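FORM 7B: Structural annotation worksheet

SECTION A. Query
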Amino acid sequence: MKNTGPNPLRRHSALQPLSRANHQGLMFCLLLEKGLRNEVHPGRMHDFIIHFYDSYWRAHRERLHSLLEDLLPGSDPWALEFRKKYQSLSNTWVKAKSTKSSTSVRNLKDSLRAFIRWQERKLFMELQDHHPKKIEVLVLPESGDDICALWTDPFWE
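SECTION B. Predicted structure
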């Protein structure tokens, strides 16, 4: 049987560490989604949100922001769109870290998932298709441990 679905995205090797880090973000979203579906108390998920952000996501988002500032001029439409989406997601993180509610967990999950998908499907494709010389010289650290698997309260089960 022929696969009629979309082909997997091919990621330039220089951007692969960022894609692997984004995969961690998507796993985080999936676990939050399972917790919401199972009606887990928001406080348990709130602790996980703070842990994930402080232990992993803050460094990733700072690295991504710095990278894009170096790659794209400030007036570039992609840079402008990134800054807009980045600021919106940052605001959502602040709310999720300060509020223990299912609504804030759901908003964070949805916002982060949308941001990552935009990066992977739009922004990274733009970078590798139209700025290959700039990304070829990137040296990015690997994403590190699977931070979700290390969490001691598997509320998603």
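SECTION C. Observations
The mean pLDDT is 86. Residues 42-71 form the longest helix (30 residues).

SECTION D. Sign-off
Analyst initials: ____
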